[in-house]
Prior knowledge:
Blueprint (H helix, E strand, L loop, with lengths): L1 H8 L6 H30 L3 H8 L2 H10 L5 H14 L1 H37 L12 H7 L2 H18 L3 H26 L1 H17 L2 H6 L12 H33 L5 H36 L3 H28 L1 H9 L6 H15 L2 H16 L4 H27 L1 H10 L12 H24 L3 H30 L8 H25 L3 H10 L17
Helix pairs in contact: 2-9, 2-13, 3-13, 4-6, 4-8, 4-12, 5-6, 5-8, 5-13, 6-8, 6-12, 7-10, 8-10, 9-10, 12-18, 13-14, 13-16, 13-17, 14-16, 14-17, 14-21, 15-16, 15-22, 16-20, 17-20, 18-20, 21-22
Amino acid sequence: MVKKALRIFHREIKGLHEAAYLLAFFAILSQLIALARDRLLAYSFGAGGSLDLYYAAFELPDFIFITVASIVSISVLVPFLIEKLEIGKDEGKKFIDNIFSFFFILIIGISIIAYFLMPYLAAAIFPKFAEASVNPDFIPMARILLLSPIMLGISNFLASITQVYRRFLIYAISPLLYNLGIIIGIVFFYPIFGLKGLVFGVVLGTIFHFSIQMPFVWKQGLVPRFSFKIDFANIGKVVFLSIPRTITLGISQIALIFLVSFASRMSEGSVSVFNFSMNLQTVPLSIIGVSYSIAAFPTLSRLFSSGQKDKFLEQIITSSRHIIFWSIPISALFIILRAQIVRTILGAGKFSWEDTRLTAASLALFTISIIAQSLLLLFIRGYYAMGNTKKPLYAGLFSGALIVLFSYGLIKIFNGFPMLQYFIESLLRVGGIPGTVALMLPLGYSLALTVNCAILALNLHKDFPGYIKAISATLFQSFSASIIMGFVSYLCLNILDKVFNINKLWGIFSQGLISGLVGLLVFILILKLLKNRELNEIWKTLHKKIWKAQPIAPDVPNL
């Protein structure tokens, strides 16, 4: 039994949909644990000052992880690893040792510098939180979290190896274990160490994330070894390719730091509302966008490097169609059922009804860009597979600037025009709640990413004429069916409002669940009448035994 389980765990998954659905399945499990994590945080703290400190403490360590660790990211390393391993395992091992040694020195050095500069950086970005006399735990928490980019960076380095060998299951389980570590911190460490216990849980989660990658890498004989003898010629190629991606991700993270900094200057709890709603919108993003883009990336790299551009485009189109197919209806349901979702997941303990309404409104504004965010993940990986990092870079720079400018401008407009403020509060049903100006942050974020997605889609169409036409039918059918689905779900909510006691958890959960299921049934029926292509493909895929899918002969030798 154990050997059979291990064979499943290490099994290669080759088909796009099988891999995407496998990743989606574990993304759902991971997100369920993440939602349990957020519910524990909401129950214990509510949308208040303590949780604001916890979330803000992540920003600088996250910036280091996203920028420095991008050198060993999957998107950058996979093409290099494929190339080296096709030459031979010895060549691949040499490359792995070289990159690891350089990365380890770099990440440790930058983390040490950040440790000593943390009080000054925090005072500049979060002056309200960085006052030691008022919030003595903030700087120590941020310093402890500097261990996170080190461990996650090494883990992602190992994940690049598992991705080359198509061991998607290993990669899929790692975020699940990461969130499990955070929950341990909330339940066991916080009562002992206070707020510092929360970040101890985060560090434990990164250790879990790293540990799950190690057995397979060890089995392949590819565990990296540190050496001071670094071949800077190979390093230069990787760094040269990763610089545009580093800048792109760095700009995005800087934009998020700006948004959290804006929120920290607003009413207490604004940072928590922003993060809670952003975490909730990552549920469909992780299940759809991340799953398809990760599943497609190794194949895209191989197809383009072998000159099969027609098949490369076909893979991009197929992934795009299914991302669109899933993203639009789920976005519609999240907007219609936002209050039910937030209240069911977070509505406990110190998380008040006002916290629920404000978080639900923020979630709706984030949700409008889920399709754009999901497609962006695919477009960026597609361009990286082509070795073209300039176009994602330019679009990312423009997007990062727009996020900050849109959010700042919307804050000014919201505060300066009472009629607009009244309209937005009435539309999102948050009238009379303090701190509604924080809603301009997710709105600015969504608008900017939608513009970024449009830019990359037009560029992809320019590089591969016919792309937009190939996805237009899916876009029209999914959007049309989602509008009707949303209307039906909204009617069901109003009807069931008189049936269930929505002041109770079971009542509001049942109201949302039934309304969502009825809406989904209508959505499927409409697509069936339209003879939707994606619906038929999904039906065929679900009839396959994903766990026992027969892998196609791998391109990498000696597997």
